[in-house]
Amino acid sequence: MINDGYLIVSGSRIEEVGKTPFAGDRSEFTATVNLKANVLLPGLVNTHGHAAMTLLRGYADDLPLSEWLEARIWPIEDLMTAEDIKWGTWLAIWEMIASGTTTFTDMYFHEDQVAQAVEDSGMRAVLSRGMIGFAPKGEQTAMESRDFVQRWNGAAGGRITTLLGPHAAYTCPPEYLREIVVPLAQELNVPLQIHLCETRYEVEQSIAQYGVTPVQHLVNCGVFAVPTLAAHCVHVSDHDIDLLKANGVRIAHNPQSNLKLGSGIAPLSKLRSAGLTIGLGTDGAASNNDLDMWEEIRLAATLHKGTAEDPVLVSACEALELGTAGGAQALFLEQGLGTLVPGAPADFIVVDYHKPYYYPRHDVTAHLVYSAKSADVIDVVVDGRQLMRNGEYLTLDVEQIVYETNRCASRLFGS
């Protein structure tokens, strides 16, 4: 933590970080900004989500996951067009910029629309076309995934990277994982992300069908031969955790979505003790119902203390790291992202620190984790480009986003 220091940005990179007031010649800079005792910190990193599900926010609440997906979500998703995905994604990007998220991942369809919105908005993202392995969609989603990776990996000046997105073991049969997903990921040299052990029912069904847990099943299918990000990992045994660690699997922890869907609480302490790389995610806005990473950070710091009856289990500093650098590492992004060090990408945010809940000024990190509100974010910079300045959006048209998302929702839901 630096008090009264400075940060110098050159192009898309952090050039210098000072621990004392800047004493050099300010005339050499194109622009200088006095943060007026506000807090500058790395941009937040959302490691799991489905951006365009903002259009389904509030549509199917308070249902078990299987019923939520099969009876409510999937039927509407079958009706969603590329235009719906476009504006649902822009709505998500607006929400994320507003709350200080600078990097997110996505697994959905019509993913070209997502990538284009990322490029135009200035965000950073790790994107995948969601893959369903059952015929006739299996072959189609594999071809679309190949095309998407080839078009977009490294695009937008490197702000967009890609991976494969097999949805889950229960939607991708073993032969599809072994014969299509794994070889394709190896051919394209990209990681993959997958939903894993989200519910107890998922684990029970895997044992009934394959005789092993979903984690062991993915090992048997060769999935972990590819670098893998696993979302959720709520119902994992000690042996499962050993397998995840042995295979270098990275974890996206989604505490609020898991709570709202009644899925359970991931064993964060055990996952961290095993040395796994972990980031935080919101999941889609249909199961959260927002994309507020501050809430996930706070839950990571408090939820597990309560379940373990251990007040020192996850410190404020550790929780903030899960929402920044930990998330960047979980998403296979370059070293330094999610930190404020020389040479790191210039992705950072500014929090308005003049709020009643930030006084007295005992511990800045504790205040941010336990007291901060998403509305306190006033400036957002990604790759050295300012996306929000003093609460003003510089790369998106809020009025158009509101109009278009309302239009899409009216068509989908008949309201």
Would you count the extended β strands for me? 16
Strand content: 15-25%
The parts where pLDDT drops under 50 for at least 5 residues are none
Number of domains: 2
Distance between the termini: 50 Å
Helix/strand class? alpha/beta
The quaternary organization reads as single chain
CATH architecture level-2 label of the largest domain? Alpha-Beta Barrel
What is the helix fraction of residues, given as a range?
25-40%
Supply the CATH class of the largest domain.
Answer: Alpha Beta
Mean pLDDT: 96
Radius of gyration: 21 Å
CATH superfamily of the largest domain: Metal-dependent hydrolases
Strand order of the largest sheet: 3-13-14-15-16
CATH fold title of the largest domain: TIM Barrel
Count of individual helical segments: 15
Instruction: Give the overall silhouette.
Output: globular
